[in-house]
Every structure is written in C-alpha cells, then in structure tokens.
Amino acid sequence: MSSIAIVSAEEALGREIGLAVASELDYRLVTLKELLALTAHDQGLPAVQLEEVFRTGGFWRGRLTKKRLCGLARLEEQLCRLVSADRLVFVGYVGPELFSQISHVLRVLILGGKEKSREGEAARKWFRAVYGRDLEDARQYDLTVNRGTIEKAEAVRIIRDTLRHHKFSPMTYSRQCLVNLELSSRVKTLLVDAFPDVSVKAHDGSVWVYSAALNRGRQQTAAEVKQKVLGLEGVRYVEVYGSRKRFDEVACGQIR
Amino acid sequence: MHTVQVLLLDDEPIVGQRLKGGLEKLGCEVETFENPLQAMARIAEKRFDIVITDIMMAEASGLQVLEAVRKTTPEAKVIVITGYATTALAREAMEKGAYDMIAKPFKPSDLRALVIRAMQDLGIPAPPAA
After folding, report:
1. What are the tens digits of pLDDT across the range B76-109?
2. Domain end residue (candidates: A128, A152, A168)
3. Which of A112, A172, A256, B34 has the highest local Cβ count within 10 Å?
4. Reduced to 3 states, what is the DSSP secondary structure of residue A139?
C-alpha cells in the first residue's frame, strides 16, 4: 500500500492533518517526535541525543556536526523501516531524499495561512542548513495544501483523493527502490560514526560506499570497511571509493 | 482452456531470447518483437492478455506502446521493463495504465512472478509448476 509524507514547518498544522488523514484511511500515524522515540528505543540511544539533531544552532561550516549526522542517519534508517511496513502517514521534515525516490509515497506540503511561529522558523532554518533547500519549495512535493484557504475536512479529502491516483500505487520498481534505500540506510548507520561524510548507494544487494577517508592511500581501512559492510544482512557485494567523482560515476551511473 | 497470449517487446534481442522460454513454461504463448512499430501493428490485429515492453527504444517509446494497448485492449496487463527507471517515469507509466514496472537488470524469476500475478488478476489460474 501507499504511504504519505506530510511536511509542515508548523508542527501543529502538520499533526492535525496527519491525524485526520491517518484516521480517514486507517493508516499508522508517526510524527517526528514519535520517530525520535521509536529510534531511541530500537537503537538503544538516549532520546536527548536524537533531539540534539534538530537543534538549529551549532552547525559546523553550515553542516551538522558528526554526532548529529550519526543521529540523523539513525532516524532516516528508522523511517525507511516504517515506510517499508506500508500504510504510513509520516508527519515531519526528515528524509526528503528518501521520499523522492519512492513513487508510492505521496509527498504533501501543508502551509499555514497565519503568522509564522518561532518553531516554524527554526524548522525552516534547520531544513535549509541540512538539505540545502527551502522546506516550503513546492517543487519538492506532489501536493501543496494551504490551510489558510482550505478547511481541514477539505484538505483531508484532497489528500485522500490524490492518493487514489494509480501513479501513487506501489509497484515492483518502487518496492525495489525501498529495499535498496533500506539497505543503504543500514550501511550508512554502520559507517557514519567512523566516516561522517559517508555516502552509500545500494542495488539488489550490491553496495557502493564513498568517504574521502577511503582514498587509495588507506587501502587497509577500505578493506576493513568492505568486510564490515559484507557482514550486514542482505549485502552480497561491496565497492568502496575515496573519490567522490568516481563514486558518482559508478554508483549513480547504475542507480537512477 | 485459455492460453495466455503474451507480447514481449525489447529492442535488445537477448532480452526476448532469455525470457521467452521461461514464460512458455508458464503455459503462455509468447510473441517477441524488437521493433515497437511492428509490435504496435501486431497489437492492433491480435488481442494479447499480457504485454511486456521496454521503454527506451529508437522507433517509439514503450509508453506509446502502453497507450496503444490501453486503446485496443484496456483489460490487458502491461508490464514495463526499463533500464532507465526513475520515480517520474514510474509514475507516468502507472498513470498511463501500466500494470507494473520493473527495473533492469532483473532476474527472469522476478518477471515470471509478475506474470503469474497478472494471470491471477486476469482470472487465469497459474500453472501448478509455478
């Protein structure tokens, strides 16, 4: 079954629509706060460590610090697992790259018509710093609902009816994408502590890993990473790269 | 008993050669094509239950083939196979009425499983060996 990702800088606005949509469709609702709690529970981490990911200050050269990158990787891994279980309404602003690669996830942006809150401004700032784009750029979404002009019941009806379009139905390809994303997120979580700049692509059990720390001069480290990744369930083959260009050519050339 | 009629279109001959036998083992009667224009001409004259088509081909795209099938036999199941899969293409194919889409490379068994599901959805029992 399809899933829905509801994004709103204004938490209460997103939660209100998410709750109503989940109830209408009999889907599971997971908010950002619940994602934090689930991840903390499943990964045996203190919740406060994951909450730290969303602190708006403390970016190093415009990027998340190592500790916060590790937290974000764990949250995105958890999100992959939740989407894999189907019939999910997720309300939150993490994982835009994940959702953009799964055709059976309907991405909805909820805008508020009233004044912007301080929390909303913090969410916008965080999103821009982490993902390098505007949270409220409608081009990232399949549907934008302005709550300033659309009533809640109407918004729910629009989302429900949009989801019924055949193009948001799961298919073999979108399920394959999800399996690949789930595997790459697990590999990333495994490596991000040691290699905060790690990028991972996976396809059908083959995994491509990039980190600048895995360049040619560090063959022993690269071999150790390879062995470590091969130990993960579902991994059949691993290649590691210290060159971003080469990684993009090889991994992204095979996975579109 | 109804024999499932399958049209298999891919401009790479090896694809048809590799997949045809496996589909015939399911009890399907399979016609393979490498040229989309010839395939569309055949679709216009014969009713197929399942059409399996590549997308990126020189003479016409698989989406045109999909549209041709929807016009002539809307109940037919069209399975799209492509080495250029993207979210946008997947959604476009589904919007135009594709039954499913699978990215290349795939295992022949993956396609067979899809064909069996399509047969079941058409009300045709899957062969016991499947």
Report:
1. 999 999 999 999 999 999 999 999 999 998 999 9
2. A168
3. A172
4. helix
